[in-house]
Amino acid sequence: MTHASVPGVSPELLHRATARFAERFPGPAPRVAVAPGRVNLIGEHTDYNDGFVLPMAIGRAAVLAFRARPDGVLRGHSVAFDETRELAVDALSAPGGNDWLSYVAGVLWAFASEGRPVCGLDVVVDGDVPIGAGLSSSAALEMATARALCAATAAPWDPVPMAKLGQKAENRYVGMNCGIMDQFASAVCREGHALLLDCRSLEARPVPVPAGASVVVMDTGARRKLAGSAYNDRRAACERVVAEMAKASPGVRALRDVTGEELEAAKPRLHPTDWRRASHVVPENRRPVEMAEALQAGDLARAGRLMNDSHFSLRDLYEVSCGELDLVTELARRHPACFGARMTGAGFGGCAVALVREDAVAGFCDAVLSAYRAKVDLPAALFPCRPEAGARILE
Ligand code: ADP
Ligand code: MG
Predict the structure, then answer these.
(1) pLDDT tens by residue, 14-52
(2) Distance CA 203, CA 184 (A)
């Protein structure tokens, strides 16, 4: 295999994974499945409100070197954790665990739970999606596993049901209550495009990222765990608003069904904090649709304004930003090549994303990173991302 020619995957990473496979699991050469991480361009905390999101697959990926085994054993080696472990495939049951091999085993379990064929595998797990940074290394690993399993059992690859199986693995086997966006982006995305996803109907539409625009991921280096309690608080606030609104309008099932005027009219009946939370969600639910229109029209200034609006709303109304995210997005906005910037992912740390003039992106990254480092002593990183394709087998 000529690793240098594979788009969207680092050749060093491919070499490392296949070399490790040859070292640990001697025998016939492995096949390789790859699935990308993703960055959400806009639409934050909208998935569980039945709204829209606009993720884009990036050139950081999970790589799975694999070979089928006839004996029903899953034997995995992780490069990141430098560990080899094995499990019997027909003994998997949920909940499993939340270590690295559980993301692989969970997908096998999810396949089996729906009567799909599974088999034993030797796998080397590797990747360059930063773990726990909000770029979804976990969904990348799940979708690479699903892609590998389909190839190993000669089953057809159908990305939407595969995304659902990946989510099922993470929800039920690993025990993480995530939405569908991450697996969807990692399985379904097309090169050159972001993906406008309706989290209610699961209808999705590719949206071209226009020439002249570069998407820059800005990793703050801050890794504050999203306090499960803060996330649950936000969800509960949304549910209370829905319950109150549904008293007057029984058609309201989620904040998706509420307009800005209706929310304003209900203000006296709502707790002020709940009202503030919903005041983020209601417009944010529509922003991905508006941003898709702006990108389609090549209106980068409008796209950038929407990103800024989203950030201010997450910071002031939903209150899930943090000092590092506010700082890096503010530094980005001050740069003349920046159209707009916002935090991305659940918040309280992790990454932000900026839309930047492509011809000035290198200077932008240098300037913002050095200004950030002058104020914050954390392992921050900025990197431009091209919109890459979803999960695939490298032939
Ligand atoms: P993220 O925001 O990156 O998805 P999660 O906490 O959801 O963070 O998932 C991270 C977990 O996924 C890791 O702790 C590990 O168990 C697994 N994982 C992801 N990428 C890899 C990898 N390259 N190698 C081994 N395990 C990985
Ligand atoms: Mg994850």
Answers:
(1) 999 999 999 999 999 999 999 999 999 999 999 999 999
(2) 11
